[in-house]
């Protein structure tokens, strides 16, 4: 009986380690999408699944990235480093006129949250650090929407 329990514990432990390894492998293998601006392609902005880390081009205060909405309960989280400026402006556009996508929330470096907003908003910057935008669907609007959109972020 003791041997059975020991073997069972080893199997459970190895199963947990395998799933953790699969998660790490999946997150490492997530590919970067191409990110286009009107000036050029930015290679140091990271897009992994539904998380976007913004990196502004040298001598630029704005960037446009392509993103994809996967439906209800799958928000796109955008991390925006702010080192200077007074206003953070974000705008969402989509080729689909029925796109149910908006800026749901902004979270400041201090942890304060504000929202919901629409597809366009301007936010007064009171501190430096990393701001987070949560982009998702308007659950009051109705149907689930999946599709691609563009997000333009500007700090001035």
Structure description:
The structure is a single chain. By secondary structure, the chain is an alpha+beta fold. The protein has two domains: 1-30; 46-155, Jelly Rolls, CATH 2.60.120.380. Helices cover 18% and strands 37% of the residues. The protein is built from one helix and ten strands. It has one helix spanning 2-29, and strands at 46-48, 51-53, 62-69, 76-82, 87-93, 102-107, 113-114, 120-124, 129-136, 147-155. A six-stranded mixed sheet has the order 1-2-4-9-6-7, with no helix packed on it. Strand 1 and strand 2 (51-53) form a beta hairpin. The longest helix is centred in the first third of the chain and has 28 residues, at 2-29. The protein is globular, with a radius of gyration of 20 Å.
**What is the element string, with H for helices and E for strands?**
HEEEEEEEEEE
- What spatial order of strands do you see in the largest sheet? 1-2-4-9-6-7
**Rg over CA atoms:** 20 Å
Number of domains: 2
Number of helices: 1
Low-confidence stretches: 16-44
Overall spatial form: globular
Helicity range of the residues?
10-25%
Under the CATH scheme, the architecture of the largest domain is Sandwich
Biggest pleated-sheet summary? 6 strands, mixed
Total number of strands? 10
- Find the structural class using helix and strand composition: alpha+beta
What fraction of the residues are assigned to beta strands by DSSP? 35-45%
Average of the residue pLDDT scores: 78
User: What is the CATH third-level topology name of the largest domain?
Assistant: Jelly Rolls
- CATH class call of the largest domain: Mainly Beta
Distance from first to last alpha carbon: 69 Å
